[in-house]
């Protein structure tokens, strides 16, 4: 699996559509201070489902939409897409190429898409779970992350090892199943109450 292409439009400093082709090997993004290098990484983290505006160096989520500059007007929507090659089938979808997109409108409305089909945020999380690519995956090492890893509490370090070992998805599925069981228990209690009332 290989991140092949990144498309950004209306996200932070990228008012116009920008397409970055990432060939195999090392790609370096260079530029003066404040030119938008970190915004590229923020865009990747955002399309992978980041929900914390603070993690994206903002205060509220719509801070990521291009807010205008001296020469350009503000924009109403941010859109970021990533395209991965999937010939080895690492991602659990039967496509040689997988494209994910996230959109956010100033109205607050947002959309996620997998291969141009509308999906839930949950589908994006599940697609990348245990691949190391998710928003919490270790494919993105932000500034200060190494220090953070070295000073993690034992439980946090365990989470880190679990993500690397690929067992996070089983923990996630267990939590989902437990939630369903709790819902079912509540439904049973309600049904019992109704039956008692009817007797
Ligand atoms: P450094 O080398 O200092 O870390 P950088 O190249 O990583 O800088 P970024 O932090 O990615 O730069 O980009 C900062 C720029 O992005 C600032 O000029 C800021 O005004 C611009 N920016 C951030 N959010 C928005 C937004 N919503 N609309 C327009 N511009 C934005």
UniProtKB/TrEMBL annotation:
<comment type="similarity">
    <text>Belongs to the SMC family.</text>
</comment>
<feature type="binding site">
    <location>
        <begin position="32"/>
        <end position="39"/>
    </location>
    <ligand>
        <name>ATP</name>
    </ligand>
</feature>
<protein>
    <recommendedName>
        <fullName>Chromosome partition protein Smc</fullName>
    </recommendedName>
</protein>
<comment type="subunit">
    <text>Homodimer.</text>
</comment>
<comment type="function">
    <text>Required for chromosome condensation and partitioning.</text>
</comment>
